[in-house]
Amino acid sequence: MLNDSINRLPESELLAIFDNAAIVLILVDREGRVVRINRAGSELVGAGNEKVMGLLAGEALRCVNLYGNENAVCGCTEECTRCDLRNLFSQVFNTSIDIEKRVGSITVAREGTPQTYKLLISANRVVIEKKQYVLLTIDDITKQKEQEEMLKKLVKTRDKLLSVIAHDLKSPLSVIIGFADYMVANFDKVEKEQINTFLEHIQQSSHDAYNLLDNLFEWTSNQWNKTSMIPKAVKVGDMCNDVLDFCRSIAKGKEVRIELAEHYSGFWVLDEDMIKTTLRNLVINSIKFTNRGGIVQLETAKNGETLRFVVSDTGIGICKEALESLFKGNGNGSSSGTESEKGSGLGLLICKEFVEKHGAQLEVASEVGKGTSISFSIPPAK
């Protein structure tokens, strides 16, 4: 038992071991007041032993729930009932049963900014001069948990990439290879009209493959925070025309009319590449789900203090079930277009992430059989 080991050591040796331990050690009494804290603990709380002795644990650690609230008392607020540290040492005092290596967290105020630490906590009974204390052993595992989350994200990204490469990219490439091989093998037999049809299929599949690769690059870059915001004053009308010019060949191949409706002709501060990518994906997606002879419109307008972008179509619309999973990134948000066009769902994910970087949200309104409208409003630059 820990008490027996402590009682056999001279006080000076015990204090030396306590103070120099690489892990955080905090000795608290039944009220939760700090009796002693070692050097590692002082580094965590940002104050030496003499400054925190006698303070309640939350005060010593600068618990965020006490910061800036003169009336709050450690152990007496509603948030205290959910405090991992307080619950652990209180449990040990009440049950006399030690607790080993329990994962918990605490949010503290560091220079006025809340900062959450992930902790591995042990709480052991200690008797010193017939008085009961609890020794808190705390290991800061924040970086370890961050690395675990990063690894999970890496695995998820890898799986998505493999899925896109194995299925979504393979489809347009197979079409290109199939028609090209056929024309090479039957060059003298293929009629001019048939060649034109084959070339249209190759053209469409080439666009699909290019857009997919472009989205794949944008998405993976954004997953690893390599996509930086570069806001600048952009002439909105010119930017929208560039987007529609890029999409015209896709729309023409499907006989869908795309047009710039009412639009804001002034300048707005935004990341041009991100918003172009967003609008391009939304327009292409609208073309995908619009029948031949349909219309896709891009509209911009000042809406109070914000600039509103709207991409609308006269397409087949989206059912309620599909709307709920549209931006979840689980593969359920993607389906075949009106002419069996394939998609990975990455385009809409990119739109969502890029729009959110601008402090906005995507809004979707759709009616099955009548069409869909997707919009977002960018606030003015701060």
Descriptive overview:
Residues 164-382 form the Histidine kinase domain. GO terms for molecular function: histidine phosphotransfer kinase activity; phosphorelay sensor kinase activity. This is histidine kinase. InterPro entries: HATPase_C_sf, HATPase_dom, His_kinase_dom, HisK_dim/P_dom, HisK_dim/P_sf, PAS, PAS-like_dom_sf, Sig_transdc_His_kin-like_C. It comes from Alkalitalea saponilacus. The protein has 382 residues and is an alpha+beta fold. It folds into three domains: 2-140, PAS domain (Beta-Lactamase, 2-Layer Sandwich), CATH 3.30.450; 143-227, Helix Hairpins (Orthogonal Bundle); 228-382, Histidine kinase-like ATPase, C-terminal domain (Heat Shock Protein 90). The chain contains 13 helices and twelve strands. It has helices spanning 2-8, 11-20, 39-45, 49-52, 57-60, 84-95, 142-168, 170-185, 192-223, 236-254, 272-288, 320-324, 346-357, and strands at 24-28, 34-37, 99-110, 113-128, 131-140, 232-235, 257-260, 267-270, 295-303, 306-313, 363-367, 371-378. It has a five-stranded antiparallel beta sheet, with helices on both faces. Strand 3 and strand 4 (113-128) form a beta hairpin. The longest helix has 32 residues, at 192-223. It is elongated. The mean pLDDT is 83.
Quaternary assembly: single chain
| Shape by Cα distribution | elongated
The level of helicity is: 40-55%
CATH class of the largest domain: Alpha Beta
H and E order: HHEEHHHHEEEHHHEHEEHEEHHEE
Distance between the termini: 60 Å
Mean pLDDT: 83
Structural class: alpha+beta
Main sheet record: 5 strands, antiparallel
For the CA atoms, what is the radius of gyration? 31 Å
CATH architecture title of the largest domain: 2-Layer Sandwich
Strand content of the residues, in percent?
Answer: 15-25%
Protein name: histidine kinase
EC number: 2.7.13.3
Domain Histidine kinase: 164-382
Keywords: Kinase, Phosphoprotein, Transferase
